[in-house]
Queue: 3 jobs
Job 1
Amino acid sequence: MKKKGLKRKMIAGLAALAVFGTSVGLPSMEQTVYAETSDLPAETNTTFAKARELEFGSSMAGTLSASDNSRYYKFSLNETSSLNFGMERNVSESPINILFYDASQTEIYNIWNNGPGSVSFSRGPIYLTGGDYYVVIKVGCYQSLSFTVNKDSTGESFIETQDVNNDMASDASDISLKKRYKGVLAQNEEIDYYRFQVPAAGQLTFNMTNSVSDTVKYGFYDQSLNPVYTNTVRSGYKVTQPVQVKRGVYYLAIAKEDVNKGVGSYTFSIDHTQKGQTRPGTNNVTVKKAKINSVRNSARKKMIVKWSRVSGASGYELWYSTSSNFKKGVTKKRLSSSVTSKTYSGLKKKKTYYVRIRAYKNISGAKKYGKWSSKKSVFIRK
C-alpha cells in the first residue's frame, strides 16, 4: 500500500481514539497508544508468553474479532494497590470479558460486561497485593476498544506481596499496643494475621473501623492459637470491644466473612489496661446502682424481670442462676439502655432462680459499671 494511504488511515485511527478519551475518565493528553488497523500487522500479544507491558495511566487500544479475540498484558506491583479500570468500545451488544491473573496464571478477578448501552464502563477499585500479574481482554465479535488502568497505593502498614505476606499465623506481622495500623484485604487474599505481646493480665480494648466492602470477622488467639474471642464487623461500621486476657503472646486475625466477597481497607488499634487499674477518664464517673422492681413466673418455664431505668446508663448487665451466690450455672445478658423489662424462657420447673442487674456507661472504649442490685428470686411453679 502507498505511504500516503497508510498515513491517512493511521491519522483516522488516532482521531477515533481522541473521541474515546472523552469519557470513563480516560486521559485526553498525549499518551502511549498501541493501535491496530487492517493495514497493520496483527497484534502479537495473544498469549501469556507474549503479553505486552501495561503502562498505568496510558491508553491502550486495539481492534479484535471473533477469530482474533484476546489480548494479553502484564504488569507488576511493589505493594498492595488499588486499580481502577476504564473501557471504551464501539460495540455495546457484544460481551466483553476482562480477567486478572497472578504470576502462576491463576484467575483472581473477572469483569464481565454484556448488555445494551455498555459502550463505555469502568470498574474499581480492584485491590491486589504486590507481585506480577496479567490482564486479559476477550471479546465476542469484531470491535475496536481503548482502555486505561490507573493505580494508587493503599498505604497498608505492612507491605504484602504474593510471596511475602501475613496470610498465616507463622508469618504474622508484629504490632505494638496503643498504636494504629492499616490493613487491606485484596482480591487475592482472605486473611491477615498480627502478633503482639500482652505485658500483664488485664483488658484489651480493640478499636476497629471496617472500610472493606463486606462484613469482616476478627479473632484473638493465644500463643497456641486457641480462640479467646471472635466477632464480626459490618462494612462501614466501627467496633470497640473489650477482651479479658492474661499475660503472654497473642494473635489477631482479620478475615473476610465470605471468601468470595469483600475487598478494601480497615484500621485498628489495641489498648491495654492492666488488671486492677482503671482506664484514664473513668475515675470521676459514677454509675447509679440499679434496682429490680419485680421477678415473676409469667408462663410455662418463663420469668419476667422488671427494673428501674438508670439515668445516663449506656446499658445493663443482667445475671440469673439457680445458685444464690452466682458461682455456677450463671446466664449473663447484655441489655440496651432503653429496655426496662425482659422475659426469659426455657427455665427448669420446680427450681428457684436468682436475678441481679447492674448498669454501665461506655467511656473511652471501656465500661464503667455501677453496683449490683439487690438480688431477687422466683420459684418456677409452672
Job 2
Amino acid sequence: MFDIDAWHEIWLTIARNKSRSLLTAFGVFWGVFMLVVMAGFGVGIRRGILDEVEHFEANSTFMFSDRTSEPYKGFQRGRSWNMTTADLAAVRHQFAHKIKYSSAVLWGRYSTNNVVRADKYGTFRVMGFEPDYNRINPMRMLQGRFINEIDIRECRKVCVIGKRVANDLFAPNEPIVGSLLRVNGVYYMVVGVCESVSKQINLFGDSEEMVNVPFTTLQQTQSSGNQVHCMALAADASVDVAQLEEEVKTLIKARNNISPTDQQALQSFNAKQIFDMFRALVVGINLLIWIVGLGTLLSGVVGVSNIMLVTVRERTQEIGVRRALGASPWVIIKQVMSESLVLTALAGVLGLLLGVGVLVVVSQVVAASSGDMPFRDPQISFGIAVAALVVVIVAGVLAGWLPAKRALQIKAIDALRDE
C-alpha cells in the first residue's frame, strides 16, 4: 500500500542536506552513465567488426603456391611451381562431401592505365574468378550480374567492374552495363557493377577498384595455361576447415612432388581462425567494459552507503525515539533502505537517460560520417537498459542494508542519552 507520509518523510530527509545528497547521488549517476556509454561503445565496436563480415564465409581457406624450401624426389629446393585446374578438379572430386563452395583465382597483369574507355582511363587490378567466389566473399551488385557458369565454360569476354571503376570511367546516369572496356589490351563487355559488402575485408585489394573477369577467359588472354594462383575453398558448417585445409594440402603436395613437410611451398590463409580471434577480442573488450563500468558504479554505491551511515549516526536520537514508541525493526530497516533506494534510483535513471542520449548523438555522427571506421550504431539494447536498472535497484538495496543494520543496533535508552 502506498504511504504518502512515508515518502514525504524520505524526501524531506534527502532534501535536508542538498549538497551532500547531490554529491552522493553523483557517484551513482556517473557510474551508471559510464556503464551505459561504455556498453554502447562495446556494441558499436562489435557491430563495426563482426556485422560487416557476417556475409563472408568464415569457414573458408585460401591457398597460394610459393617456392619450395626442401629438396624432394630429385627436385632441388627453391623450385617454382603453380597449382593447376587439374589440382582444383582433384580437390573438388575427393572432398565433394566437405566443400560447400570453391573457386579458382587468377590475378591479371598489372600495368599503368591498363583499363581504358574512350578518352578515359585508369589503373585498376584485374582478377579472374569463378561464380562461387561471390558466395565466399560476397560483393553487392549495383547493376547487372556477376560472372556465371556460361561465362566460364565459353570463356566469354565479359567483366564486372567495381563502383569506383564505374565512377572514374563513366559519367553520371550514363549506361554502364553493355559498354565495352579495353582491359590489358583486350575488349570486354561490362555485365555488372558491384561494391564491397564489407569495407574491412580486402583479400586481393579493394573490390570496388577491381575489374573481375571469368577465370578461364583470363587464362586465355594472358596465356597462363592451366595455372591457378589461388584456390578459395569454403567448407560446410559441420566441417572443421583447419582439418580440411591440411587434407587438401597433402593432396596437392602429393600431386606436385612436394615434400609433405614443406611449409613454405603451399601456404594458406584460414579465415575462421582470424574471425575467431576477432570474436574473442570483442568478447574481451565487452568484458573489460563491464568490469570497469560496474567498478565505477560500485564506488558510487560505496559512497551512498557511507553517507547513509553518517545519516544514521546523525539521527540516533530520532531512531531511539521511534524504537521507544514501539517502531518494529522492519519499520526502521524500511525507512533507511527506502532513502538509499530512492537516492540511487533517481541518480541511476538520470545516468541511464543521459547515457542513452549521448549514444544517440554519437550514432547520428557516425552515420553521417563518410569514413570506413570499424564502429557502427553504438545503441544499447532494451535488455542492457533493463539490466542497468536492475543493477541500480540492487545497488540501492545493498547500499542501505549496512546502515539499516547499524540503525537496528541502536538501543532506545542509549539513543535518548546521546547528545
Job 3
Amino acid sequence: MEIVRYSSDKAAEWNAFVAQSKNGTFLFDRRYMDYHSDRFRDFSLMFYLDGALFAVLPANRVGETLFSHQGLSYGGLLMSAETTTAKTCQLFAGLNDFLRGESVGTVVYKPVPHVYHHLPAEEDLFALFIVCNARLAGRDVSSAILPSHPVKWKRDRHYAANKARTNGIVVKRSDDFETFWTILSENLWQKFAARPVHTIDEIRLLQSRFPENIQLWAAFTPEGQMVAATVLYICGDVVHAQYISASELGKKLHAVDGLFDQLIHNVFASARCIELGTSNMPHSNDLHDSLIYQKEGFGGRAVCYDTYEWTL
C-alpha cells in the first residue's frame, strides 16, 4: 500500500473517488472542502493499493496532531464498495507508520455517521479498536427522522403546525439567503453570542458550486415576508438541516413547525433520512433541552457524531 499526500493536481481523481465511495458526501468534494483552505494546513491523504486508489482521508494538521478535517462536521476514511475489514486494518497500520515518519504524535478522528453510508462502512471503527487502540474522545447527539418509519409527533408540535397553517404560513424554496442570514445571525448572537459557521459570501459561493445539494427552504407570511428558514444539505437520499432559524414574528406564528411539517411530510417524504443536526455544545454534556425537545417532537431520534483519538 502506498500513501500519498493530497495536492491540488489530484483534485479530479479525489473528487471522482469521493463520488463513488460508499460513505462519502459532497462535503468531501474539494470544491467544498477548499473554500476555507486558508484557515487549515491541509494534510489529506490518498491510499493506493496495487496502484489503484483505495481510500482517501480528509485531514489537516496542527503541530504534531493530525485531525480528520476540522473544517467539516464529520470526516474519517472514505472507502469504496470493495473495501474489506482486513484491508482497512492493514491501511491503518500503514497509516500509523506513515504518520510516525511525519512526526505526528496524535490523531483525532471523526468517522462519517452511519446515516450517511450508502453501504455498511464501519470497517474503520473496527480498525480503530484493533490497530490503533483509540479511545472515544467526544460524542455529540443529532436527531434523525426516517420517513419510511415515522415516529408520532408530539401533541404540541401538531398544535403548532396547525397554528402555522391557520396563520397562512407559506413554505417554498427560496434564493434569498441574505434575508435568512440576517434572521440567523441575530438569533445566534442573542442566544449564544455566536455567528454562523459560514459567512453569507461563503454560503453563496458554496451554493453556486452545489446548487442542488445546498437548498434554502423558507416560511413566509401571506404578505410574502420571510419569517423562518432552513439551509438543507442534500446528500443523496439523506437531507441534513445545516441551519434552522426564525424571526421573532416567525416564532409567534409557529413558522418553523409549519416549515418542517411541509418538508417532512411532503417535500422530502421520499428521503431515506432527514437529519436535523446536533443539539449539544461540541464535545460537552451541555445538552440544549429545548432544541432537542423540538427535534424529537418532530419524530427525530438520536444519531451520534463521535470523535476518537489515539497516540503514536
